[in-house]
Design a protein that fits this description.
Number of helices: 12
Distance between the termini: 18 Å
Structural class: mainly alpha
Strand order of the largest sheet: 1-2
Length: 304
């Protein structure tokens, strides 16, 4: 299938995702990917050399999903279906918007509960500013993971590359943790995720800066704050997060609790104002605009 045709399908899938969000059903492709990761873990985790076992597990599962992608490549409807299933920004925007409404109404317990479904950090003691800051942080990171990653690899290599990316990202979110269980077994999954997200995360940051210029936000600060991205514990997440923080004039990072342990995340951003619901609304505009501008750019370059 030609690149021009894939761009058209991407635009169509984006609008479906933005309108409908992500439906929950047992045979959702992401859940099937998760099932395959759980099966792989059961089969390989018992081996003594955990890093080697994890590497073999990742390689075999990645090959399986890649080959399945090649088998399904010929049908345009399947392209549209899997794109819609793997793009995650529509549901992300809906969830973040609802968190903003709950904070505005003062329903902080409900906002904390809803936020906890989006992040792994402990949200139980969060005040308004912490809720909004964390929602914006996950919004920035998942603008990259939820759209730029799958869109980039789909345009690059169709369904096979889309499957490879989404499998890797999903698997990393399941076993890519640096805890006692997964430090060695999940190493290959985490490294593969780093490699695959290297370009999309930086592409996302570029369009966030461009969007901040279009929207009249502080694009100079967004550009300046990119110098902090390499200080993030993640090879890639720091780029969209730093651009977001700079554009909105806030700062991400600080001390948070993960799985009962306090963790320090290096600050991203140069302004330390407490973000509010208005900051969250601006962040949603920034995320949506960066995605739309990317699609307009792709259309202008490859469909003109």
């Amino acid at each position: 299938m030609s690149l021009e045709y894939r761009i058209k399908l991407l635009v169509f899938a984006f609008f479906i995702d933005a309108l409908l969000g992500d439906p929950h059903y047992r045979l959702h492709p992401v859940r099937l990917i998760g099932d395959s990761v759980e099966l792989g873990e059961r089969l390989f985790y018992g081996f003594k050399h955990k890093k080697l076992a994890g590497f073999v597990c990742y390689a075999l599962l990645a090959l399986m999903w890649l080959l399945l992608g090649f088998a399904l490549e010929g049908c345009w409807f399947l392209h549209l279906f899997f794109l819609y299933s793997f793009l995650a920004t529509g549901q992300l925007w809906k969830e973040v918007r609802e968190i903003g409404k709950l904070v505005k109404k003062g329903r902080l317990n409900r906002a904390r509960s809803k936020l906890s479904l989006l992040v792994t950090r402990d949200t139980s003691a969060f005040g308004k500013g912490d809720i909004v800051r964390t929602a914006l942080e996950t919004l920035s990171e998942n603008t990259s993971d939820g759209f730029f990653g799958p869109a980039f690899f789909y345009l690059l290599g169709g369904i096979p590359f889309l499957f490879l990316y989404k499998f890797t990202e999903t698997a990393d979110s399941m076993v890519g943790y640096k805890n006692d269980r997964y430090l060695h077994f999940g190493w290959a999954f985490a490294k593969a995720d780093d490699i695959l997200n290297f370009v999309p995360s930086r592409l996302c940051a570029l369009f966030i800066v461009f969007s901040s210029f279009v929207l009249g936000f502080d694009y100079k600060n967004a550009t300046r704050c990119l110098k902090y991205a390499s200080l993030h514990e993640s090879l890639n997440a720091g780029y969209p997060e730093a651009a977001f923080a700079g554009a909105l004039g806030i700062r991400f990072g600080g001390f948070y609790r993960y799985f009962g342990k306090q963790v320090f995340k290096f600050p991203l951003g140069e302004d330390n104002i407490v973000p509010n619901v208005n900051s969250l609304e601006k962040g949603l505009f920034l995320s949506v605009t960066s995605v739309v501008l990317f699609m307009l750019f792709a259309c202008a370059v490859f469909l003109a």
